[in-house]
């Protein structure tokens, strides 16, 4: 039976004692020219910084070296969400230009979205979107607008015909033809994300095959990444931050693969923070089980991981919730030291940048 519930913040999950945390505890300096604004020529050609959470030791490798860093019996867990071209442009019926970022499609005629305009539209306002759609603003829920398409092909068809790939704001360029392929994992299946699970962008079909040849298995979850993943933390005491909600599915088959990996002595390695959030949400009761629903889980230092033994991840923004998550897994001091090393060695940062392979400070973490 698949559970359907809301997984909540780490404050209601398993916590270890930890001192008060301030936003500045997760700051680091990053030169602007290290932000990757285009992908590497080949997916698996990115660099890979390996961090041993026990010793703090760092090792500079290539992502294509990954099969050498894994062991027979390990399990890689992938997020198979597919990014949709969720950015739409148009104008208000009153004339002002707008940008609409679809956050979630409820059905072909109804969606929630973030709307950028010189002046926020009010409920009852009509939006005229490129592609010939007329959309009515029916309400607002915090920073999301509720939209109803009164005329046009429906939201999924409109996005496919007239939408743009929703590149992160720090890339600071318009999307291009290359982004339709490269801002998407090669194993993407389930449409619904408005941001890519970027750790998976480094895999190509050849590397996935090479991983399987060394005896590593693959499992999949689905977590549809929302635009809120880029929302800044606006509180000084990070424990009071509240996360946006995202939809996810962890199947019974994936739970069985994880159990079999455990029984055989293998490691469960998450490909990306979205996989971590999905698996930890599915284990919120203390036991990993099939899960389908929403999660707003917030993982920060002090969290006791129940499922994973390793994490492949990209570099994350200063003072971001994702930096807090990896700090929880491998230790804040270790992570910040690794980031200083990455800056000194001129690694490429963020969505189109290089990657890290993280191990926890204690071998029992996630067990």
From TrEMBL:
Catalysis: reaction(s): 7-aminomethyl-7-carbaguanosine(34) in tRNA + S-adenosyl-L-methionine = epoxyqueuosine(34) in tRNA + adenine + L-methionine + 2 H(+)
InterPro entries named among the record's database cross-references: QueA, QueA_dom1, QueA_dom2, QueA_sf
Record Gene3D superfamilies: QueA-like
Protein's job: Transfers and isomerizes the ribose moiety from AdoMet to the 7-aminomethyl group of 7-deazaguanine (preQ1-tRNA) to give epoxyqueuosine (oQ-tRNA).
MF terms in GO: S-adenosylmethionine:tRNA ribosyltransferase-isomerase activity
Pfam family name, one: Queuosine_synth
Membrane-spanning parts: none
Protein name: S-adenosylmethionine:tRNA ribosyltransferase-isomerase
UniProt cross-references to NCBIfam families, sorted A to Z: PRK00147.1 (NF001140), queA (TIGR00113)
Quaternary data: Monomer.
Keywords from the named record: Cytoplasm, Glycosyltransferase, Queuosine biosynthesis, S-adenosyl-L-methionine, Transferase
Similarity annotation: Belongs to the QueA family.
A cellular component term, taken from the record's GO annotations: cytoplasm
GO biological process, one term: tRNA queuosine(34) biosynthetic process
EC class (word): transferase
SUPFAM superfamilies (alphabetical): QueA-like (SSF111337)
Pathway: tRNA modification; tRNA-queuosine biosynthesis
EC annotation from Swiss-Prot or TrEMBL: 2.4.99.17
HAMAP family membership: QueA
Localisation per UniProt entry: Cytoplasm
């Amino acid at each position: 039976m698949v559970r359907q519930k809301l997984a909540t913040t780490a404050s209601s999950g398993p916590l270890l004692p930890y001192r008060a945390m301030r936003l500045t505890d997760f700051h680091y300096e990053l030169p602007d020219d290290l932000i990757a604004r285009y992908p590497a020529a080949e997916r698996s050609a990115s660099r890979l910084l390996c961090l041993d959470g026990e010793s703090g030791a760092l090792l500079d490798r290539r992502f294509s070296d990954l099969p050498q860093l894994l062991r027979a019996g390990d399990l890689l867990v992938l997020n198979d969400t597919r990014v949709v071209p969720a950015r739409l442009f148009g104008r208000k019926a009153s004339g002002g230009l707008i940008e609409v970022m679809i956050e979630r499609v409820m059905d072909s005629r109804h969606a929630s979205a973030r709307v950028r305009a010189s002046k926020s539209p009010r409920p009852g306002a009509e939006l005229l979107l490129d592609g010939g759609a007329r959309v009515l603003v029916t309400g607002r829920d915090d920073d999301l607008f509720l939209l109803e398409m009164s005329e046009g092909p429906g939201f999924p068809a409109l996005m496919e015909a007239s939408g743009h790939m929703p590149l992160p704001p720090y890339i600071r360029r318009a999307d291009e033809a290359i982004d339709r392929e490269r801002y998407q994992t090669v194993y993407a299946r389930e449409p619904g994300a408005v941001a890519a699970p970027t750790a998976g962008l480094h895999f190509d079909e050849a590397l996935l095959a090479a991983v399987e040849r060394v005896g590593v298995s693959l499992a999949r979850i689905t977590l549809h990444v929302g635009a809120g993943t880029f929302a800044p933390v606006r509180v000084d005491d990070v424990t009071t931050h509240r996360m946006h909600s995202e939809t996810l599915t962890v199947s019974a088959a994936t739970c069985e693969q994880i159990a079999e990996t455990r029984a055989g002595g293998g490691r469960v390695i998450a490909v990306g923070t979205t996989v971590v959030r999905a698996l930890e949400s599915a284990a919120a009761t203390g036991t990993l089980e099939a899960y389908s629903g929403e999660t707003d889980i917030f993982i920060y230092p002090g969290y006791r991981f129940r499922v994973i033994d390793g994490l492949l991840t990209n570099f994350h923004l200063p003072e971001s919730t994702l930096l807090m998550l990896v700090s929880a897994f491998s230790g804040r001091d270790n992570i910040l030291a690794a980031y200083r090393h990455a800056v000194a060695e001129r690694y490429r940062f963020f969505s189109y940048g290089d990657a890290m392979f993280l191990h926890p400070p204690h071998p029992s973490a996630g067990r």
